[in-house]
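Put briefly, the fold is written as integer tokens. One such record reads:
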Amino acid sequence: MSDLANSKFVGTWKPATIEFFGKKDDFESKSRIDIRADGTALMYSPDEKEEDKKAFIWKETDYGVFLDGKNDLKLKYIDDTLFLNFLGVKIGYIKEK
């Protein structure tokens, strides 16, 4: 496994934009994606019970990040934003400072 600690993807990502039906808007949500240096990732909302949080194993790809879990997710990296396309909705995540 490569040295994930130095990956630009390690950190907490929050939603910033949403696009659906061809319209793009700013988007705020409590949901987060934590991408960790140990190769794990967690998708959650702070209001969720611990057992409801979605756990993944992640890896860098040529397009961005692949989250391997119960439901696999591909996040495309463009201009410091990770984009998740899900059921016709495109959510853009930016890294929290």
Q: What stands out?
A: Strands lie at 11-20, 23-26, 32-35, 40-44, 54-60, 64-69, 73-78, 81-86, 89-95. Residues 4-95 form a domain with the Lipocalin fold (CATH 2.40.128.280). The first strand starts at residue 11 and ends at 20.
